């Protein structure tokens, strides 16, 4: 073995024989650098995944074992929590590790991004050779600047548009209302509030032109758009509301949109959809095995509709049973399942058609087959309901919209009833266990 390539070893105690192998310093530094980047002002407020971890606790402590599964931190997950804790303790004033070595957090609070859109302006008309330093100096003449972002063509050249975020709303209002308009050399600039500019961009030129080609109508595509435009998580409700308005407008046509799993599906009038558009959280399905074969798919699902009531308080939606063989079937849930969820299902649902059940995670192939079948069933069901509405009202768009609104209200009421029934069933089970 080459000594230069071997991991350093530390002997603890003169006769204990205990050895601790330390990872190469470069790996520790890489883990620390990546962690500080993920928790930085430039990254944290603009990415949903790490932002959710940051806000999970009021004290903003993030469990290291959860953080190690985020993004490229997964490369260090196998090192273990203790190794990561020691690597992150070397941070110089950016992050801190708790005494137990189980959690981390930022030392300084995240800047307030509430109202970010209102204090950010879009200025158009700069020259193609303009530098970021020149833009920073230009906007600094109106007030203190937080950040300046340059918009570029696909080849990386500056396209003459720049976003400037001020620390307060007042300088943003002053530059927007300036009369005469600000000038760059001899060129008059067109300046508008980013909130208005993005609304026009998203609702008109951007969405209507690119949503069809890039499928930017989906939630994941809209989130990516927000990240590209540096819109903080706390302000993204504005863009999501615009997306809902656009989906409502387009749903009046021959196609409609169906929220399924973590995807927004475009469904044709006949209920067909593209399988590649169906997305879901992995590890959200279970497979059961009976002691002996009993009944068929119809009998299984008829009994399953009543058996699954105790599970409704814990899962928003539970699928039908997809029969895999004479004694095996697969069931899907609305979210990823952890070990506690599997234990819950196994304790609540012990028999089907008089046969005892054993539960295990479904394979990736079985999970994909079930989720695609589930999505297609939902699409066919909604398409049939829409077709029935259209035939019943003679194609009246206004009346159809009113009926669809009534159906949505009815579904919400039915969902509330199911939740209450599930709570009742859960209370009965709890009382039965206590007895």
UniProtKB/TrEMBL annotation:
Zinc-finger in keyword set: no
One of the protein's GO biological processes: RNA processing
Domain annotation RRM: ranges: 119-196
An MF annotation (GO) of this entry: RNA binding
InterPro entries for the chain: La_HTH, Lupus_La, Nucleotide-bd_a/b_plait_sf, RBD_domain_sf, RRM_dom, WH-like_DNA-bd_sf, WH_DNA-bd_sf
One GO CC annotation: nucleus
Keywords: RNA-binding
Alphabetized Gene3D superfamilies for the sequence: 3.30.70.330, Winged helix-like DNA-binding domain superfamily/Winged helix DNA-binding domain
Database matches in Pfam families: RRM_1
Residues of the HTH La-type RNA-binding domain: 21-114
Identification of the protein by name: RRM domain-containing protein
Organism this protein belongs to: Botryobasidium botryosum (strain FD-172 SS1)
Organism taxonomic ancestry: Eukaryota, Fungi, Dikarya, Basidiomycota, Agaricomycotina
């Amino acid at each position: 073995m080459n000594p230069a390539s071997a991991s350093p070893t530390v002997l603890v105690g003169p006769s204990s024989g205990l050895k601790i192998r330390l990872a190469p310093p470069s790996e520790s530094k890489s883990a620390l650098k990546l962690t500080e980047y993920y928790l930085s002002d430039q990254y944290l407020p603009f990415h949903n995944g790490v932002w959710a971890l940051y806000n999970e606790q009021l004290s903003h402590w993030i469990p290291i074992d959860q953080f190690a599964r985020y993004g490229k931190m997964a490369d260090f997950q196998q090192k273990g929590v203790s190794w990561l804790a020691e690597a992150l303790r070397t941070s110089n004033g950016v992050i801190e590790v708790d005494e137990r070595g189980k959690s981390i957090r930022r030392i300084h609070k995240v800047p307030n991004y509430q109202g970010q859109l209102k204090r950010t302006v879009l200025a158009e008309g700069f020259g193609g050779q303009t530098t970021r330093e020149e833009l920073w100096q230009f906007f600094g003449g109106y007030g203190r600047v937080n950040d300046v972002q340059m918009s570029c063509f696909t080849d990386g050249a500056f396209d003459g548009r720049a976003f400037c975020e001020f620390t307060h709303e007042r300088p943003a209002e002053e530059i927007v209302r300036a009369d005469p308009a600000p000038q760059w050399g001899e060129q008059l600039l067109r300046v508008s509030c980013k909130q208005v500019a993005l609304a026009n961009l998203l609702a008109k030129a951007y969405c209507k032109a690119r949503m069809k080609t890039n499928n930017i109508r989906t939630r994941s595509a809209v989130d990516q758009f927000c990240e590209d435009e540096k819109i903080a998580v706390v302000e993204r409700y504005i863009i999501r509301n615009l997306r809902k308005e656009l989906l409502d407008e387009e749903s009046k046509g021959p196609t409609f949109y169906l929220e399924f799993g973590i995807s927004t599906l475009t469904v044709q009038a006949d209920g067909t959809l593209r399988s590649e558009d169906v997305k879901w959280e992995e590890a959200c399905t279970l497979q059961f095995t009976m002691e002996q074969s009993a009944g068929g798919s119809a009998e299984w699902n008829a009994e399953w509709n009543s058996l699954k009531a105790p599970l409704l308080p814990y899962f928003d939606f539970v699928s039908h049973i997809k029969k895999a063989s004479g004694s095996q079937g697969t069931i899907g849930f609305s979210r990823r399942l952890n070990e506690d969820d599997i234990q819950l299902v196994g304790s609540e649902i012990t028999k089907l058609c008089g046969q005892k059940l054993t539960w295990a995670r479904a394979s990736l192939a079985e999970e994909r087959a079930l989720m695609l079948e589930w999505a297609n069933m939902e699409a066919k069901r909604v398409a049939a309901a829409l077709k029935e509405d259209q035939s019943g009202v003679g194609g009246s768009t206004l009346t159809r919209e009113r009926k669809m609104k009534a159906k949505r209200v009815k579904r919400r009421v039915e969902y509330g009833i199911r939740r209450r029934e599930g709570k009742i069933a859960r209370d009965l089970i709890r009382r039965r266990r206590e007895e």
